[in-house]
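Lab notebook, bench 4. The sequencing result for the construct came back, and we need a structural model before the next group meeting so we can plan mutations. Quick request posted to the team channel:

Model the 3D structure of this chain.
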Amino acid sequence: MESESENWGKTMKAEVEDTYAEAFEGLYCRVIVTAENHEILREAAEDSTATPSIVVGRIEGGIEEWLNSANTPDGRKGAVLQFWSGIDKKKPIGESIGRFEAELSIRIRQDILVKPFTALFDASLHSIGTLDMMDRVGHCGDGFEWEENRHGRDVIIVPLMVPDFVIERRLGYSKGIMGANFWYFCKTKKSVIIAGRKALEAINTVNGVVTPFGICSAGSKPETNFPSIGPTTNHPYCPSLRETLNDGSSVPQGVAFIPEIVVNGVSLDAVKEALRRGIEATRDVQGVHLISAGNYGGKLGKEKIWLRELL
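Done. Here's the predicted structure in token form:
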């Protein structure tokens, strides 16, 4: 006969804690990458968005949607990508935009331009400005690059040994919401993976959002003993430290894993809907004990998304 704890996930939904996810405003570019075939397209899309780097002052990205040839500027297979950067509130906005442009160009040059027969086009929504791709990407042609109008867009042609890379000269940027999240407290390794996959699939049905970390094992906190390396582990929620911390541990008995899902999106409404669908998708999975979220008393961002209000 099964015990009550063994039967938990079969008889009721996981509890949602009465708390909030803290999120903040960021800059993002929304673009379309295209390629000759799906294999190269997937490599370009995944490589360029694979490393979530906001916590160390770089940029992060995600794949919003895969496109068929009828929905791309050049009639090839494509994907909608989002690239994100934080805003330093202590400095003029122009400095954050300049850093974003520099970091974005690195991702484009190292992960997309180098893939054979790729192209990159603007897909901005309600842009508040544009980034000129000539200085940091176009000039990869060493002065031999040129401009054309293709597919009704002003593009730069960068001559390469496998000719040629095409990029729209100006990419729009906008402001959106970053860092929204939820945690799902798990009893088993299996529930970590099953619930996480279900959450990501549900979130992916919402237009305008990305999940830069996928299933994330490393929730962090603003305070750190090692400032030179940036945010460090959120130690009260590390199951392996429960005995070490004693009363300082926030890990419930029976919980062995606390994964995090992070959502960035083009609007607060889109982010809230993504969180709602993600949370609902995890609650019925056996082994998921509790749903909560990361918040830091306003130290991270001004947006407070209360979890129970989403359901």
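The chain has two domains: 8-22+178-310, 26-174.
Will bring this to the meeting.
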